[in-house]
Amino acid sequence: MLLEVKNLFKEFGGVVANADISLEVGEGMIMGLIGPNGAGKTTLFNCIAGYYRPTRGRILFDGKDITGWPSHQVARIGIARTFQGMKTLSNMTVEENVMVGAFCRTKDREVVRKEALEIMELLDLREKAQSFPSELPIAMQRRIELARALATKPKLLMLDEIAAGLNPLETKEILQTLKRIKEERKLTLFLIEHVMEFIMTISEIVIVMAAGRKIAEGTPEKVAREPKVIEAYLGEKYAKG
Predict the structure, then answer these.
(1) Full-model pTM
(2) In this structure, is residue 146 part of a structural domain?
């Protein structure tokens, strides 16, 4: 198993953001994570990626206990993530943004630049290499974040609302891009998303969270029929198609 989360709790003072979360993500899988705002999804991602230290519980990656590791160490062992809010570096060009990710693996500037160019080519960003992110549309800024994460050479890529702010055509394009890079780069994907058509199309297994707890797990079809998922998040309209 590539990623294992065991009985994880994260508390902020008296607020329990994650309560007894356990999950497994197998190598090569595409796992989806859904739930209402405030369910604790991003907090869980932050614990896995080393931005928060869990209050208790364990996180294992590739058989190694990484509980409480800082984010830079987590990145070096093969976990990369994008963020819910746009985190492009506005004072750097597209190329420099991608190079930042590649520097996680080496300090050789030529190697870093070569890797950045390859990834920009992969994500159709090559022509915008010398542009600044703020000059580009949201869909392209999302690709820049994705490119920077890929430049760290991850085994596990965690994407927090990668389709947020995209129109239906852009959403379809990013979905196809993710499927392509997963195969080409032998990646495992773990995605948080509110765009249901997107997450239900791409995911093999979907986990549902509400009020800090995992309330369901299964195939998209199974999860969409779960009464507690319909009540907590999807609603009758979605469940009936």
Answers:
(1) 0.92
(2) yes
